[in-house]
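Title: Comparing notes on inverse folding

I've been comparing how different people in this forum approach sequence design from structure. To keep things fair, I'm posting one structure and asking everyone to reply with a full sequence. Here's the target:
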């Protein structure tokens, strides 16, 4: 796997995921995001490669208030997604919790400890966008 940065779209797996999203029709795009996030959120044991799940969560975050930064990132899908159900925000946050869990292998293998910390901080920022504030009904 090639990884060139600590952002959610900065790996070959994430880029391939976005390419599949851009190639699919609207309903298939939403299903791909949903199935990727549900699979990661429901996984048991260590998460060895969750780059697609992190990218999918960033795609959802890019459609949420406060997530404009992700929608503007290089690598974000060029084709718009249909309205994202508010419940998918919760699933995306749960998927990121799995990525950040101590038993997850995703925070290991970085070239420097600073890269690992930067990746973790970015995933935490995505997760913060996904978790609706009190009184926020969720937007999509």
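Reply #1:
Here's my take.
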């Amino acid at each position: 796997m090639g990884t060139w940065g600590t952002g959610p779209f900065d790996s070959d797996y994430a880029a391939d995921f976005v390419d599949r999203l851009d190639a699919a029709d609207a309903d298939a795009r939403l299903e791909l995001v949903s199935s990727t996030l549900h699979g990661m959120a429901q996984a048991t044991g260590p998460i060895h490669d969750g780059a697609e799940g992190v990218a999918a969560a960033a795609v959802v975050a890019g459609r949420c208030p406060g997530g404009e930064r992700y929608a503007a990132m290089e690598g974000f899908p060029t084709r718009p997604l249909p309205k994202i159900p508010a419940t998918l925000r919760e699933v995306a946050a749960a998927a990121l919790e799995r990525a950040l869990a101590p038993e997850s292998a995703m925070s290991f293998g970085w070239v420097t400890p600073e890269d690992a910390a930067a990746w973790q901080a970015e995933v935490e920022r995505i997760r913060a966008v996904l978790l609706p504030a009190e009184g926020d009904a969720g937007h999509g």
